[in-house]
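Design request, tokens follow.
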């Protein structure tokens, strides 16, 4: 037994690409997502911060600041992982901000803005908020919605009561306006707050009207960014908004955007509890975004996923790589922020940082074990591009979970094969256990959230919900999932029969409010299962063990039998090839034992 299990474990963990059906080799050159680029940039930034490099912006009368070099190294790291210059600039500026860099400093000479600095270092053109896309959430929109809404209000004379046509000579454009009551107490705050609110509402409406769930945090950032292209973006404002040199028009724009989006006043980083004032955050990120250049959709997806590092990510409509669902590996950008911030908070102590990362994974995910394996996979893949303290801490935090997860499945498979069970049946048992774990975790999550006794049971989970039955759709049910979910709330049962193909379309198209409110109870666990292709240890581990214990079937034949049982883990194609490859490696390793 020792040799078979040892050989299987070594084969499974010998190549990180075998751990997933996601195409993570493509991610190393930015084909699909830019999370590896973000992790590589975080490695670079963390190295600089931990060696004591000053990353704050100042108005010092010098040609360069240390942050220029930090940004250059981060941008280079992101480009090494396939990010184009505009996306590299956005990723690096955002990560520097989360590492502690301020968004702007200095008026007017010695004026520096983090987004503009990153854009110029990356040597890309400015494009304006109008042309910047949102992240893709099935569909996507652009900042045009915010810009149009603001200009609609401008033409309707809704932003400020000041009539610029009567401003006297010598006042407009000078300090009597810009540093006086007219500008600081009236014009700047009125335009910033009203304009940001208008832009935010325009984004929210555009999201909804193209069939997308609105993202309040993204809408607010776009709303702030769009008005900061118009209003003086770093002017002082009246004392009613805060202390002199402490708040400015960007902050007031953030206030207007936050109120319009219905965002909470404070946000908190997972694991560290670090608190951010939401208006300041939105204003600062608006300043960065307005200057950054022309990031693409996948650049904006990486940016939005960074915001899922906040505990409130679900409520504010950020990405979902911060939990509780485990997304495809390409979405995992929150880890770049979380791991970098934890590392900085521990002054570079890798051991302490790894313990905190482990705690974060155990606290915020439906399947902590799988979340840790996924983090291990993507951090090891990122190290193929650029090593650093962030990936080192991520790997140290999760190596134990990988070892335990792989060993448990190898031992289970070995024991069941000895009992005479077929490998297809064994894999189905492993996926049954995964389904049960998701049901239990989802029930506990919603019980805590709603303060009611919630029990969730998935009674049907298979392919071919509405399309013509084919071998492909039957085998890979992630593309057309036929799911029935029973949800019991304080003893009252609701049955969602045909969740994807019947219940959801009917509730959305016919605006059935009571059903819409209950659907998340069924949708969350089903989506967790649909995304299971990101970590396929229920496929490759049994395949390796079965190959070593069966001389009659080839690795290819074993792989096919495994996939027959992997009704959850085989959500997307790729498992057969990986199971076969791992099995062949196991044979070679076993030969040496």
């Amino acid at each position: 037994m020792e040799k078979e299990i040892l050989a299987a474990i070594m084969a499974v963990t010998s190549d990180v690409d075998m751990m997933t059906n996601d195409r993570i080799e493509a991610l190393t050159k930015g084909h699909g997502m830019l999370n590896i680029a973000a992790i590589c940039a975080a490695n670079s930034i963390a190295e600089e911060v931990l060696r004591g490099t000053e990353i704050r912006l100042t108005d010092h009368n010098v040609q360069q600041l240390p942050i220029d070099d930090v940004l250059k190294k981060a941008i280079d790291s992101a480009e090494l992982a396939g990010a184009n210059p505009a996306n590299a600039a956005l990723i690096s500026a955002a990560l520097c901000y989360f590492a502690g860099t301020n968004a702007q400093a200095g008026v007017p000479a010695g004026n520096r803005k983090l987004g503009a600095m990153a854009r110029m270092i990356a040597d890309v053109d400015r494009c304006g908020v109008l042309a910047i896309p949102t992240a893709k959430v099935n569909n996507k929109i652009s900042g045009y919605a915010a810009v149009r809404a603001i200009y609609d209000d401008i033409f309707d004379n809704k932003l400020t009561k000041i009539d610029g046509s009567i401003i006297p000579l010598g006042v407009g454009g000078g300090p009597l306006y810009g540093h006086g009551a007219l500008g600081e107490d009236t014009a700047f705050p009125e335009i910033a707050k009203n304009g940001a609110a208008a832009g935010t509402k325009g984004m929210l409406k555009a999201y909804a009207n193209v069939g997308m769930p609105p993202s309040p945090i993204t809408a607010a950032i776009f709303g702030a960014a769009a008005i900061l292209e118009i209003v003086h973006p770093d002017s002082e404002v009246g004392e009613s908004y805060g202390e002199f040199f402490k708040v400015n028009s960007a902050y007031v724009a953030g206030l207007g955007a936050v109120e319009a989006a219905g965002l909470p006043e404070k946000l908190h980083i997972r694991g560290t509890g670090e608190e951010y004032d939401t208006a300041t955050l939105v204003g600062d990120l608006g300043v960065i975004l307005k200057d950054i250049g022309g990031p693409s959709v996948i650049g904006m997806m990486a940016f939005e996923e960074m915001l899922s590092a906040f505990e409130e990510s679900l409520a504010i409509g950020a990405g979902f790589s911060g939990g509780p669902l485990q997304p495809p590996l390409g979405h995992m950008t929150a880890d770049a922020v979380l791991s970098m911030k934890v590392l900085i908070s521990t002054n570079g102590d890798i051991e302490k940082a790894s313990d905190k990362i482990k705690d974060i994974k155990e606290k915020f995910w439906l399947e902590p074990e799988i979340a840790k394996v996924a983090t291990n996979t993507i951090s090891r893949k990122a190290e193929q591009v650029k090593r650093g303290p962030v990936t080192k801490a991520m790997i140290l935090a999760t190596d134990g979970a990988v070892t335990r997860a792989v060993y448990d499945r190898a031992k289970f498979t070995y024991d069941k094969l000895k009992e005479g069970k077929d490998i297809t049946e064994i894999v189905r048992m492993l996926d049954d256990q995964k389904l049960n774990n998701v049901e239990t975790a989802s029930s506990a999550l919603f019980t805590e959230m709603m303060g009611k006794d919630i029990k969730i049971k998935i009674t049907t989970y298979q392919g071919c919900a509405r399309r013509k039955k084919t071998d492909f759709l039957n085998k890979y049910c992630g593309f057309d999932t036929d799911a029935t979910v029973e949800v019991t709330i304080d003893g009252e049962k609701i049955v969602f029969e045909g969740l994807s193909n019947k219940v959801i379309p009917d509730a959305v198209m016919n605006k059935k409010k009571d059903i819409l409110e209950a659907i998340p109870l069924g949708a969350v666990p089903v989506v967790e299962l649909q995304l299971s292709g990101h970590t396929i240890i229920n496929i490759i581990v049994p395949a390796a063990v079965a190959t070593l214990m069966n001389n009659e079937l080839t690795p290819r034949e074993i792989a096919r039998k495994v996939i027959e049982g992997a009704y959850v883990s085989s959500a997307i194609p790729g498992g057969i090839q990986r199971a076969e490859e791992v099995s062949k490696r196991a044979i070679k390793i076993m030969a040496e034992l």
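Comment from the thread starter after seeing the answer: thanks! The CA atoms of residues 369 and 429 lie 18 Å apart.
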